[in-house]
Structure formats: structure tokens, C-alpha cells
Amino acid sequence: MKETIGPRALSMLLAALLVSGTMVPAVSAENESRGWLDTFDQWVEPRDMSKYTPVIETPQRVPITEEIARQHPGVIILDPKRESEFPVIDADIVPTSIVPTSPGKVSLTLQTESSDLGTRDLMPDVRMTQGTISWYWTQDTFVYHEITIHNYASSAASGMVILWSLKDGYGCGVPFSDLAAGADLTVTVPFEVLPQHSSIGIKPMAVEIRVDPTGLTSWMARMPIDAIEKYNNDAAHLFDPDGGENLETSDLYHFPFSEGYRVLLEAAQAADGTTEPYQSAYEIMQRVHDMMEYNNETMYVEYIFSDLYTLDHPSPINGKYQGVCDEYGTLYTAFTRALGIPTRFLSFTMELPSGNITGHAIAESWNGNAWIHSDPTWDVFDNPQVYRAAGNNHINITIYGDADDSYYTQDPNDPTGDGILRYEDFRTQILLGEVPRYN
């Protein structure tokens, strides 16, 4: 609980800010003030307001057909009965050989030497030995995979290398021909991510090698890392109306590539199987609400914690992530941005029925046409009037952006790079005021 200015003084302050303009510079720490944090009495408490969420439709992907496949050269439909036939590579891979090579790619080295030399003269034996696998897929683009194959047979072989998306039920194949006995060949497989026939989330991948003349499967396996499919943010798809500002990483939001894909993986698990940004954002909101535990210890009240810090410091009792509403909003923002949903982080003050002032942090996600309200602390989505329904007034909103842990240096207890930020570390603060749709 903070001892701060009263509601009437706050109203005068907000009126002055509205008159002076909408762009508010990062606040200073004169007289130990915490700026915006000192304009309210306490953070909002968690509530279950899910009954105020509209009915969310769950459109499904459209299964690909033979006719559609013919319209996309190289696309092959996977027989649903075969999805479970692909063995998972585990013991055959040297564990340390799965390494990042560039953003969104990993390199694999396989141990696949034929164990039955007597069969080499009887049937083709072409196998995958290495590969650079793209696991970060953007809808309506081609994702390129480099697959190295080796011919273990005693005669030349021809056939096809196929990269499958097991969940979506289709793959893309590239032919090879006259691969000499004992020879290697690296084939680039361009996988086409078809948004009408795929979904956002986790994509189990498999590689299959077929040999001529009968199309016999010589080798096949599920890859040891799953792909993650995200939305396309170019001008023809889910474009950020603020020119990419609401998709940026920062010291608060991370979706790493070369250092791993933990944030992306959790985001993909939350939105797995969704096909529209609105639906994806809703599922992420619910997932964050369920995985978080409200903890109003002083450290969470006074600071704002990054997504990675939150993921690294779960409760030792129940494993849930910790924080108050701004940590809920941070995790939601990181997850949605990671999957290509433009999202902006908002904090606001509002007047309680008692007359006291409370602070709250939420987010808004862009669905391609409008900003959609999302509050994982209260478990409510697309209902900005929920705060009025709860008896509150004067919902006064500020957009916070461009979090930089090295921006504010006057707090000796806040070293740079620890994932613990102050609100003063936001370089951009845009005061929206009492937005009509919330008030």
C-alpha cells in the first residue's frame, strides 16, 4: 500500500497532463518519487471476471485437398494413418549436435549408418545424415530446410526428400537423381506455409526419403525439435499499425532465437491450433491467467519483471509464475508479440467506489482491424467496460513502450541487465487519458 495523493489531487494532475499534451517523458525520481506509481493507492487485486468475456469462436483450419495440393508445386498430402508411424529421433542423435546456426535454425548431425550390410545389394538404402532445420515458420512464406542424405547402397539411387508438417497433414518434396553409392547430397526443401490449411502453434516435423522406382520409404523420422508457426506481419497480412513498434523485443519482452526458444515455445503451447489473431490472443490470455499466481510482495509492487525473469523464478511450492498485474501483462505481451500479434502494454489508474485510486496493467492486441482489450489478471477479454461493470470510474490510460533496463540509472538497487525494471525504464509513455471505450 502506498501513501499518495488523494483522488481530487489526482484528477487535477491528470487534467493538467491532458492539457499539456499526450506524450509524457520518462518520469524522474526527485524526492524519491516513483512517478506514475505514486498516483494511486495500490495495485488492483486479482478477480475472476471471465463472465464478461464474449463468446469466442474457434475456427478450425481447412484440411488440404488433392486439388489444392496441385495448385502448389511440391506439396504432398500426408495420409492421416501415417502420422504416428514416424519414429522420434533420440538415441541416434549425438545430443550435443543439436546446435543453433542462425535465428530460427538448428543444425542436426545423425548417426544413421546401416547396421545390416547384407541388405545393401537387395534394396536402396538412402538416409538423412545431417540437416539445417528451420523451426521458425511465418505464414504464407517458404521456409527452407537443408537436408543431407547419404546412399549406403551399392548402386546409384534416385527418389525424393520430403519435409512433413505432421499436424497440418501435408509436406513438400524435392527430387534427387543418380546419387552414387557411398555419396552424399545436400537437398534444399522449400516448405510452403499455407495459412488457410495450417494453424498457429507447435508443428511436429518429420523427414522422409523415398526411392525410385516404387516410391519405397528408405528412411523416415520425426525431427527432435518442433517448429513454431507465427503470423505474417507484412503489409498484406497482420501488419502492426504503429510500424512494428508493437512487435519489438526489449529488455522486458524476449522471444529469443539463437539462445533457445523458450518464450516462443510457451507462447506456441498457449495458442496451439488457433487460426485467427483474435482467437490466439484469447487463448494466450487464458493461459497466462492460469500459469500466474498473484504475489504482491514489495519487489513485485515496486518493479516490473521481464518475461525471462518471470519464467526463471516460479513458485517453489506450486511452480506457478509470480507477480502482480504488470507481470501478467508483461508475459501476455511477450507471448502475443512472439507469435506475430501486435500488442501494446497499458497501465492505468481508476477510481474505486470508495473514492480511492488503484493502478492496473493490461494489454491490447491488434486483430487486423482494431485494438482488442485483454486482462489476464481478471481473466477477461475484449470487454473494456468490465472496469465500469465492477464499479470503477475515470479509467485513465497510458501506453508504455520501449523498455530499456539501462535507461534509468538513479536506483542503486536496480542494476542493469537483471531483468528487473522500473517504470522509469520505459522510454515512451503516451497518455491516452480517459478513453471512451473504457469509460
Automatic annotation (TrEMBL):
Pfam families linked: Transglut_core (PF01841)
The Transglutaminase-like domain, residue ranges: 317-378
UniProt cross-references to SMART domains, sorted A to Z: TGc
Protein name listed in UniProt: Transglutaminase-like superfamily protein
Protein source organism: Methanoculleus thermophilus
